[in-house]
Design brief:
It contains 5 helices and 7 strands. It is of the alpha/beta class. It has a single domain, classed as Alpha-Beta Complex (Maf protein), CATH 3.90.950. It has a 7-stranded mixed β-sheet.
């Protein structure tokens, strides 16, 4: 089954392909499908943003489309950066965003550094039917960046004493928010 992934994010494309290709899916990014659009994320939730992106690509392709919206929720920061994770405080790079969060959590004790990655995936079938699923990964925010794998907030997100950036791709995909959401997606496909 061919799925168009409604994103231009190379990290997301890589993760979706790593998880779904061995299961027999052909995953192509929207650019690989010849769709050159950038969807403005105007929703107020991960689900709304995932649906917005999927609908925009579906309107052009009229075939199976998946889109996700994901981000990091930090309890001590009242759930921020949340849906603004990719553009938190207008900072351009992942490193800048990571450093800003570590600065904001300076002096916050370990018990209050709880956080979760959240991923909502929207599937639009070739007949236009829409379904959404959600996955999470609970952890905490470390005190410095660690690890070279992954992308985004992975170097500061600690899961069972290691950051996601310190894990192999297979390890991360087996426990990550995106991996958990994809497991739910596979249940409904």
């Amino acid at each position: 089954m061919k799925l168009i992934l409604a994103t231009n994010n190379k990290g997301k494309v890589k993760e979706f392909k790593e998880i779904l290709t061995p299961l027999g899916f052909e995953v192509v990014s929207q650019s690989e499908a010849g769709i050159d659009i950038e969807v403005e994320e105007t929703g107020t939730s991960f689900e709304e943003n995932a649906v917005l992106k999927a609908k925009a690509v579906y309107e052009i392709s009229k075939t199976y489309v998946i889109a996700d919206d994901s981000g990091l929720e930090i309890d001590a920061l009242n759930g921020n950066p949340g849906i603004y994770s990719a553009r938190y405080e207008g900072l351009k790079t992942s490193h800048e965003r990571n450093m800003r969060i570590l600065e904001q959590l300076s002096g916050v004790d370990e018990e209050r550094r709880t956080a979760r990655f959240v991923c909502t995936i929207c599937l639009i079938r070739d007949n236009g039917e829409i379904e959404t699923v959600r996955g999470t990964c609970e952890g905490k925010i470390g005190y410095e960046e660690n690890g070279k794998n992954g992308f985004g907030y992975d170097p500061i997100f600690v899961y069972k004493n290691r950051t996601l950036a310190q894990m192999s791709e297979d390890e991360k995909n087996s426990i990550s928010h995106r991996g958990n959401a994809i497991k739910e997606l596979l249940r409904i496909i």
